[in-house]
Automatic annotation (TrEMBL):
This is Aminotransferase. Its cofactor is pyridoxal 5'-phosphate. GO terms for biological process: amino acid metabolic process. Transmembrane segments: none annotated. It comes from the Bacteria. CDD domains: AAT_like. It comes from Albidovulum aquaemixtae. Homodimer. Signal peptide: none annotated.
Length: 400
């Protein structure tokens, strides 16, 4: 009898974590490596949020809490949804988890049965398909390529829906592409969903505050109120508030779904970290001025990376609307050989040779469901980005 569950054979470790780990190992061995794989801001959590955590510790807020969030945090989340998204939720419609990933996982575990399908636009965040598989469902990737700016069309969505479809996972701005859907683009998708009342929407809004130029963020239940009763609107403090390690995600949705998710959490992790919850209250209710400052910084980095990568031979890099990623196409590099003699047969081979020969760590596109591409996280210093892009240019110039 095998000891390891058959379920584990259906999933794989996170490629983004693997790349970050590999880069760290090479650095520890003395190699000059620039890591562009990690999806987290490079600056510290704001001081007022850290101070709130310290006050919570000093006040003894270090005990178990309610399973899916303290009342103060749930109230702050309700106010956030109303203020920024025009969505009305009560505390009974809010769940707080140990990071955004747990919130998504709880929802899938609470709702999926064998044979249930989940539509996932590709390129996708690496965890979406594997979480669906762990929950017993069937991921249905639908490729939205560079020709549509990595955005799913209404016709594609309509064509993917079957009687078995239970969820549509929507992520804007996107990890890994940074693509953001305008209100009109999203309305075209919600019009399709209104014709299929058995399909629920899981909206991952984690990069809501990281949008550039004149782009205006919108979320599905805001664009189409008719979807409110079958939408789980997910978010968190990780990216915008530079709180990745604090592990606080949250969501608003129908009370029955939230109750089912609470049951899952009660028998897995129980409550998120008590101190981190109090810090998240301050994040959502305290000063928000730094958000605009950080957004401007990320926009400068985006413009730098897009410009330099488009100067590399064989690379085409679209300019995304948000997040802190770019997803360049490397069709012009496939079928070549690197200076070090590596055959560039696909994007994984490209990323491997780039790391080994030029010391730049990126995540290959196949991990996100669309090749030949790679993902760059520009959540690092401009000096590091400039040097990394110069190395990528040099690597591409040497391909023959």
């Amino acid at each position: 009898m095998p000891f390891i569950s058959d379920t584990l054979a259906r999933v794989k470790p996170s490629p983004t974590i693997a790349v970050t780990t590999k880069a760290a190992e090479l650095k520890a061995a003395g190699r000059d490596v620039i890591g562009l794989g990690a999806g987290e801001p490079d600056f510290d959590t704001p001081d007022n949020i850290k101070a709130a955590a310290k006050r919570a510790i000093d006040a003894g807020k270090t005990k178990y809490t309610a399973v899916d969030g303290i009342p103060e945090l749930k109230e702050a989340i309700c106010r956030k949804f109303k203020r920024e998204n025009g969505l009305d939720y009560t505390s009974g419609q809010i769940t707080v988890g140990t990071g955004g990933k747990q919130v998504l996982y709880n929802a899938l575990m609470a709702t999926l049965n064998p044979g249930d399908e989940v539509i996932i636009p590709a390129p996708y965040w690496v965890s979406y398909p594997d979480m669906v598989l762990l929950a017993g469902g069937t991921p249905v990737p639908v490729v939205a390529g560079i020709e549509t700016d990595f955005k799913l069309t209404a016709d594609q969505l309509a064509g993917a829906i079957t009687p078995k479809t239970k969820w549509f996972i929507f992520n804007s701005p996107s990890n890994p592409t940074g693509a953001g859907y305008s209100a009109a683009e999203l309305k075209a998708l919600t019009d399709v969903l209104m014709r299929h009342p058995h399909v629920w929407v899981m909206s991952d809004d984690m990069y809501e505050h990281l949008v550039f130029d004149d782009f205006e963020f919108v979320t599905p239940a805001e664009v189409e109120p008719g979807l409110y009763e079958r939408t789980l609107t997910c978010n968190g403090v990780s990216k915008a508030y530079a709180m990745t390690g604090w592990r606080i995600g949250y969501a608003g949705g129908p009370a029955d779904l939230i109750k089912a998710m609470r049951t899952i959490q009660s028998q897995s992790t129980s409550n998120p970290c008590s101190v981190a919850q109090h810090a998240a209250v301050e994040a959502l209710t305290g000063p928000q001025d730094f958000l605009a400052e950080n957004r401007a910084l990320f926009q400068r980095r985006r413009d730098l990376v897009v410009s330099m990568l488009n100067q590399a031979k064989g690379i085409t890099c679209p300019r995304p609307e948000g997040a802190f990623y770019v997803y360049p196409d490397i069709s012009g590099c496939i079928g070549t050989t690197s200076t070090g003699g590596a055959a560039i047969t696909d994007d994984e081979a490209f990323a491997t040779a780039l790391l080994e020969e030029n010391g730049v760590a990126v995540v290959f596109g196949a991990a996100f469901g669309l090749s030949p591409n790679f993902r760059v996280s520009y959540a690092t210093s401009e000096d590091a980005l400039e040097e990394a892009c110069r190395r990528i240019q040099s690597f591409c110039a040497g391909l023959r």
